[in-house]
Each structure stands twice: as structure tokens, then as C-alpha cells.
Amino acid sequence: MTTAYTTDSRFAQHTLPNHPEHAGRLYAIAHVVTESGLLERLVWVEPRYAEPDDLLTVHSSAYLARLETTRGRSLVMLDADTYATGESYDIARLAAGAVLAITDAVLSGDVTNGLAAVRPPGHHATPTRAMGFCLLNNVAVAARYAQRQHGVERVAIVDFDVHHGNGTQDAFYGTPSVLYISTHQSPLYPGTGAVSEVGEGAGAGFTVNIPLPPGVGDAGYGAAFERIVVPALRRFQPDMIFLSAGFDAHWADPLAQMALSLSGYDSIVRELVGLAAGLCRGRLVAVLEGGYHLDALALGWANTIRAFLGDEGCDDPLGPARAAERDIDAVLSRIQAIHHLP
Ligand SMILES: [Zn+2]
What we know:
Elements: E1 3-6, H1 24-35, E2 43-44, H2 52-55, H3 61-68, E3 76-79, E4 82-84, H4 88-107, E5 113-116, H5 138-150, E6 155-159, H6 166-171, E7 178-185, E8 207-212, H7 218-236, E9 240-245, H8 262-280, E10 284-288, H9 294-309, H10 329-338
Parallel strand pairs: 1-2, 1-5, 5-10, 6-7, 6-9, 7-8, 9-10
Antiparallel strand pairs: 3-4
Helix pairs in contact: 1-9, 4-5, 7-8, 7-10, 8-9
Bound molecules: zinc ion.
């Protein structure tokens, strides 16, 4: 398999000291990806700025205009925990555009799959507002771009960030050509993502929420994938798959209380790589979302690269969570029933 990769040192211009979503997250990733020798095995893709026409497929012109007013100003808080610096508007466009560049590489057939290590993250950004450290919804913009520019019909988005991707859900809630599947801790920010949120109108059934109680780890996530994510993807038959890759479901993450290990993350990534191979010629694009424990983030991302390259093995120096996992059989059965999954 050939794997495309993009990132950019300019993402560091969007940062705020003492905020969990800071430039050091990508420094940690760059360090591991370079030191491990992975970088030289990847096909480099140059990022670009997303154009207004790309962003307008997801975001309202009023919101984009409001975001643009932060340009050149000092710090602006867009909500209680979402900041914009004078550079953030352009850097957010660069993050979205980097995902478009990787999408081009994968859909042109130059590479099998690809990864975009970008900031700011995207999955909480709704069509009309910034939220949860997110300014522009990178994955949603790329999904629309794949459909519009490349003629892709069915796009699946799998989001294993520990938080519910409310912005991505909102963008496609009435859209049957984009399947959105999220595993997330519940209760937790932003409070959306109930089992009963399944899409509306023609999009009914194409939003699959898998809210999980705190403390779910490798076994529970494995079961959620086996019983819901995998059969839902097989039924949908996507032409490509995006992965909203957040590593804040790791047990060490300071912002959440889940219990995935790096090995557990690796297992579900490999499941997706295998599914993509069977369903859509391997076309899988991973886009960085959250992850606030720097080692768990960087090592989890590096393991994801290895899985995309088809390497054997997983690096898990942090080990498994200590506490016993709780049983989620009843939750999964209920979701299977709601979505008519066997
Ligand atoms: Zn998150």
C-alpha cells in the first residue's frame, strides 16, 4: 500500500498557552513520525488553502464572514473554550485545504490511503458556529469535496474521537449519501450524540450514534465496531471512508474518562483499513481531531500510520488501562435494534 501524508509547520501559528488544543500537539506527532522513520516512507502531499467555494458547501456565508473578522486581531474567544488568534482564520483554511489535498491524492489513485495531521480540529464546528476548539469542519468539507469534485457517491465518516462530532452530524443530518458513525463518551461535551439521533428526512438512518459510558476500553470498543460500525459500513457500501481520528478516548487523556489503550486503538484502525480494502479499494483518509495526552496522541497517530502502510505490530509503551471494563452489551443491543443491524 502507498500512503499519502500531509501536515504543516504553519498550524503552530494557531495556538494559545495553557489551552489543551495547542501547537505542542503537532510537535509531539512530528517528533514521533520523524524519529520512527515513518515519514520517509510516506508520499508527501503539499497542503493548500481551502477556497470559499469549498467551505460554503458546509458552512454558512454569515459564519465564514464572522470568522474572517478575527483575521489580524489579537485573541478572540468564539465560545467559552474556542479561541481564534489573528492567524487562525487562514490556518483553519489551511487545515481544511490539507485534507482536500490528501483527498485528491487518494481519489486520483496515486496512493491507497492517506493521513492529514492538522490543527485546529474540525468535528465540533457546525455549519453556523465554531465550537469545542474547532473552527472549520475539515472532514465535512472534504466529504462534500469528494462528492462534488470527484464524483464520489457514498462517503462514510467514522469518528472515534471521545467527543461526539456534533458539527459533522449537523452537516449531514438530512443527507443519505454521507453515513456518519460516532463512538463517544456519554455524558460528556458537547452533550449531543444520543442513540435516538439517527438523521432526518432522507437522511434518516444515516447517522449512527454509539454513546458509551465512561470506562469503556478495548473490549467494549472492539464489540462496538464488530456489532455496529462494521455491519453499518458493509450495508452502506461507501466509495470512500474518512476517519475523524481523535486519540482522547485513550485512558491517559486528561479531558475524558474512557479506557482505550494504544493497542485497542490500533485494533479498530486495522479493522477500518481492512474494511476499506474490501469495500472501497482501500480509500481511507484519517484526519486528526482531538487527543490531549501528548504521548498517547503521538504514539496513537504513529500506529495509525503503520496500520495504513500495512505494517505488522503496534507500539504500546503506555500499556492497558488498569480498571476493569464495564459491560455495554445492553447499549449495543439497543443501537443494533434501532438501526436494524443483525
Ligand atoms: Zn475530542
